[in-house]
Design goal:
The strands form two sheets. Strands 3-4-5 form a three-stranded antiparallel β-sheet. The protein has a two-stranded antiparallel sheet with strand order 1-2. It is mainly α. The chain is globular, with a radius of gyration of 23 Å. It has 15 helices and five strands. Among the domains are: 21-129 and 140-148, Orthogonal Bundle (Multidrug-efflux Transporter Regulator, Chain: A, Domain 2); 162-244, Tetratricopeptide repeat domain (Serine Threonine Protein Phosphatase 5, Tetratricopeptide repeat, Alpha Horseshoe), CATH 1.25.40.10. 53% of the residues lie in helices and 7% in strands. The longest helix has 17 residues, at 301-317. InterPro entries: DNA-bd_dom_put_sf (IPR009061), MerR-type_HTH_dom (IPR000551), TPR-like_helical_dom_sf (IPR011990), TPR_rpt (IPR019734). Residues 19-86 form the HTH merR-type domain.
């Protein structure tokens, strides 16, 4: 699934639109681990909302799409880092290439289109597109830079322990599906004394992917003990409880997310599904309506509309179930929330 970025003919996106890390991962095809890595390295600029959770603007969603396209083209996360470094070196002061330049991977190169004179990291002018005799718009005259994929560092020299380097390597291993080795690397960070609450979260995700739900639950709980405002840990804990069929506990974890961040779309649909399991159908439908209010174009919106439509059809067949809300986006429940 790709983010429906507007073209020149489309209306401008809502400047107030915000995306969680999970939403960015779903709409770009990257993993949440990669999104967190790119945020940690400064490629993505996150905002903190009232509950301490992280959100990204539409501009950051476009940047995430560019980065995800690089990994989809065959780049490792380390290679992406080196390409981003070269872009930064090529950019003039105050320019943010990932957000301001048109960047796309092609074959074994990254093609960069930027207005004016663009150079590679060594300062050498590369390929210049032919400029039309009478361009319709002056800004259409662009130059292109071809940045080759940087080879991996083959140095055999031993490196001193660096927790951030280990975290980055573990993230890349998760991208490659090697959850066991990634787990071992996160454990090494924790044993080094340089561990942080989010390392417990990452270790829990490794365990979750390997199917060790009980151990994953413990790690998510430890993360919450050390950082009570970590919504990602509460969301993950809710997912584990759902997998274990412990629906009351799942509801408690997800309700905790919404108590901190009432508009968090990552919690609304899982909690609605949990309420369905507990027989709290009306509350589940209310949550789906809330989702359509807060994230009408998000990746879960179609599912929410489908479930509301199914419930509406059932109500039409059984008048005792009460009136049907024809337009869930304009529900009276939403107007008063």
């Amino acid at each position: 699934m790709t983010l429906p970025f507007p073209t020149a003919e489309d209306a401008a996106p809502d400047p107030a639109a915000r995306y969680t890390a999970t939403m960015l991962a779903r709409i770009t095809g990257a993993t949440p681990d990669a999104v967190r890595r790119w945020t940690r390295r400064g490629y993505l600029q996150a905002e903190a909302d009232h509950g301490g959770s992280v959100a990204y603007s539409f501009v950051e969603a476009r940047v995430a799409q560019v980065l995800a396209q690089m990994t989809a083209a065959g780049m490792s996360l380390g290679q992406v880092d080196r390409v981003v470094d070269r872009l930064a070196e090529s950019a003039p002061a105050g320019c943010r290439p990932l957000a301001e330049w048109d960047i796309s991977p092609r074959g074994d190169t990254v093609v960069v289109h930027a207005a004016g004179q663009t150079r590679d990291a060594g300062g050498q002018l590369l390929i210049e597109f032919d400029r039309p005799a009478e361009p319709d718009h002056p800004h259409e005259a662009h130059r292109a830079v071809l940045l080759p994929f940087c080879p991996e560092d083959d140095s055999d020299e031993p490196l001193a322990f660096n927790a951030n380097d280990i975290r980055d390597e573990a993230t890349e291993l998760l991208e490659q599906g090697d959850c066991l080795l990634a787990e071992q690397m996160y454990r090494s960070v924790l044993l080094s004394g340089e561990g942080e609450p989010l390392d417990h979260l990452a270790l829990g995700e490794c365990l979750y992917r390997r199917g060790d739900l009980a151990a994953a639950r413990e790690r998510f709980a430890v993360c919450l003990e050390q950082e009570p405002d970590c919504l990602a840990a509460r969301l993950s804990l809710g997912s584990v409880y759902q997998e274990l069929g412990e629906w009351e506990l799942a509801a408690g974890a997800l309700e905790g997310v919404l108590s901190q961040s009432p508009e968090c779309p990552d919690a609304l649909i899982p909690l609605a599904e949990t309420y369905d399991r507990l027989g709290r159908t009306d509350e589940a439908q209310d949550l789906r309506r809330r989702l359509l209010r807060f994230a009408p174009d998000g990746p879960w919106a179609d599912e929410a509309r489908a479930r509301l439509a199914d419930a509406g059809a059932a109500s039409a067949e059984d008048p005792q179930r009460g009136p049907v809300v024809e337009n869930p986006d304009q529900s009276p429940i939403l107007q008063g929330s």
